[in-house]
Amino acid sequence: MHDKPAVTQQPIHDIIARRWSPRAYDVNRPVSRGQLVSLLEAARWAPSCYGDEPWRFIVWDRNHDAAAFQRAFDCLGEFNQRWVKNAPVLMLVLASEHFRKGAPNRWGMFDAGAAAENVYLQAVALGLAAHPMGGFDAEEVKRAFNVPDGYTPMAMIAVGHQADAAVLDGDLHDSEIALRQRRPLGENFFEGEWGRPVVPSGL
Amino acid sequence: MHDKPAVTQQPIHDIIARRWSPRAYDVNRPVSRGQLVSLLEAARWAPSCYGDEPWRFIVWDRNHDAAAFQRAFDCLGEFNQRWVKNAPVLMLVLASEHFRKGAPNRWGMFDAGAAAENVYLQAVALGLAAHPMGGFDAEEVKRAFNVPDGYTPMAMIAVGHQADAAVLDGDLHDSEIALRQRRPLGENFFEGEWGRPVVPSGL
Fold first, then answer.
1. What family classification does the UniProt entry report for this protein (chains A, B) (predicted)?
2. ipTM topping 0.85
């Protein structure tokens, strides 16, 4: 198993620092029912605009319903299928386009992202790993699983017990052991006004 | 100080369970520079589609630049101003509408939501609290802080040390001590296909 803790200028909480998106999973270690419900409960308690809870999740567990899992797997892009074949659980997170009272909700995707982050972090807390993917056919997933109009599929999420990078081949293996990187703090984080980099020390 | 841990059917990690959005802050306790950088580092290490890091943050600390803080405060709705007047720090989180290479990024808001969730959770880990708000004038904030086209303001976030609910009056006080609630798990979380509620136990 490969660890890649975040390199930061001030400490951050352990489950945030240790969260990353591995592709090496152990196909022989299921996610337990209790773990699955913990992941969803973490999402459930995310904050949302007006408390509208605009996220929806659909989960598939290959050890529970192999046929349904396969139908979800078939919606993934070819690159993702190469490694998701070893993940025991898939999830789809969707964002509601409207508040429950009917008006357009411009925070649906933002709030769904907060709920999804809780899933990734709760996975770390449970000794699991989670990997969100944009590479799937959103129209096909809506058709295959009867998603009504008004909900936008945002990400498929693979979940499982991490395995050694050796289970992956070629470019997948190389990316699994590559360093994690982020742009310098001051490039995306400003102080006072747009474009003025926040600096880590001093005021 | 009022605690409202999440009520769940399986345990979730402490910082996820204890995160909520209080409105009672201690105006006399600043957020330290180190704490501020920790909050931003937590956001910086969130996952994003193609690693594009589409989030941007602008921060204002009333104990560093009172005039800039006031200009950010002036962009809030009246209801929020009633309690944010005691918060020492404000942040704005924005989502890029395009990937850095130019194509539209349909995950910008989703990824910004993940980064923001890390801020709220890191606040809990530091003994602080954070409260995201949709109630602000997005056009005014863009004008006031020179935000270029192509970035959507998603939420203003108040951050500080929590205070006793007694610092709040009337309806603000009542909501501060009210129970936190979420819809039942099976209402937003499905298994196998849309609309089939996930159930907490059994397979």
1. Belongs to the nitroreductase family.
2. yes
